[in-house]
Amino acid sequence: MTCNFLALARPNLQGLSPYVPGKPIEELARELDLNPADIVKLASNENPLGPSPKVLTAIEKELPELTRYPDGNGFILKQKLAEHYGVEPEQVTLGNGSNDILDLVAQAWLAPGLNAVFSQYAFAVYPIATTIAGAECRVVPAKDYGHDLEAMLQEIDENTRVVFVANPNNPTGTWFDVTSLEQFLAAVPEHVIVVLDEAYIEYAASSELPDGMKYLANYPNLIVTRTFSKAYGLAGLRVGYSISSAQIADVINRIREPFNVNSLALVAACAALEDEDYLFRSRQANEQGMEQLELGLNALGLRWINSKGNFIAVDFQQDASAINQALLERGVIVRPVAGYGMPNFLRVSIGTHEENARFLTVLKQILSDG
Ligand SMILES: Cc1ncc(COP(=O)(O)O)c(C=O)c1O
C-alpha cells in the first residue's frame, strides 16, 4: 500500500467508526452454514408483518416507469403528508429514510467550532452526523437510560446549532411526556434547531407521548422527523420525512440530493399512509409481542428497560457478548449495544409470535446451559 487514504481524509473523520447495522440473515447463514429459513432476525426494529398488500400493488403499478427519474420534489407524497398533518407542502421534506434528514440537518447547520447536544445512549446516527460535519458532540449523561432534558438545556451555548432528541429513543425505548417536551421547547434558545426524532411514535398510544406536530406552529426552530421504515413496514425502500417551518425545509432542500427518494418508495409511501388498517395491525402486533417478551423475560428472571418502541433492551447484568454469540449459533439475531456503552444489554426487536417464542426458548436453553 502506497498511500494512507484515511490519513488524507478530513481530520474529523479519523476517529469515526461506521454505523453497525443488524446482521443480515444471509450473512449469518453464510458464516455459520445455516439455512436462512431457520434464522430469526430481531435485530433491526423491522416490522414483522411484511409489507402491506396495498403497497405491493402500488409498487407493481409503478414498475414500468423505472426508466424514468422519480419526481425530485415528491409532489404527491408531500401533498398527502401535508394533508395528513394539516400543514403546508412547503413544510415537508422527504428523505432517503429519516436518517437522510438527520444527516442533512447536520450538514446544513453544523461545522467546526459549532456543537450539537444529544443524550448518552441516543440513536447512533446523531454522533456520526455531527462528527462528519466537523462539529463537537455534546453528550449529556442519561437519567435512568432516558434523556435528561433539563441537563441537556444546560449544555446549550451560543455555539450550539442543533439538539437531537428521540421520543421514544433507540436503543433504550425510553420516552418523555407532554410536560417535559413543552418545558424543553419553551427553554431552548430560538437559534437552536430542535430535531424531534419520532421514528417510533406510531407505536405509542396517542395519550402516552406528545405529538411533536402540535408544536410546529409555535416553534419555527422545531423539526419533527418520522419514517415509513417502522410501523409502516417499508424499511427496505428507505423513505422518511420531516415537518418543520417552511424556512427550515427550504434550507434542507438546497443541499439534498436531487432524487433522494426513489420512485418505488414514493408510491409505496403514498399507499402506506392511506392503509390505516395496516398501521392498526402493526400497533396491535407490537403490543402483543411486547407483552409476550416481557412475560417471557420475567419468567427467566431478567430485567429490561420499559420501551414504547418496537424493541426492548434486555439487561443481562453481565457482559452480554457470549449470550449474543450463543444466540447467533442457534440462528437468532438480536442487536448487541456495547457500541452504545451498554455492554450488558441486548436489544431485541418485537417479531411475530413465533419469532418471539423462538427467541425466548433459545434464550432459556442458553441461560440454563450456563
Ligand atoms: C431513533 C431513530 N431515528 C431514525 C432512524 C432512521 O430510520 P430510517 O432512516 O429507516 O427512517 C432510526 C432507525 O433505526 C431510529 O432508530
TrEMBL record:
Gene: hisC
Name the UniProt record assigns to this protein: Histidinol-phosphate aminotransferase
Positions of modified residues (N6-(pyridoxal phosphate)lysine): 230
InterPro entries membership: Aminotrans_II_pyridoxalP_BS, Aminotransferase_I/II_large, HisP_aminotrans, HistidinolP_aminotransfase, PyrdxlP-dep_Trfase, PyrdxlP-dep_Trfase_major, PyrdxlP-dep_Trfase_small
Record field: catalytic activity: L-histidinol phosphate + 2-oxoglutarate = 3-(imidazol-4-yl)-2-oxopropyl phosphate + L-glutamate
Assembly notes: Homodimer.
UniProt keyword annotations, A-Z: Amino-acid biosynthesis, Aminotransferase, Histidine biosynthesis, Pyridoxal phosphate, Transferase
GO molecular function, one term: histidinol-phosphate transaminase activity
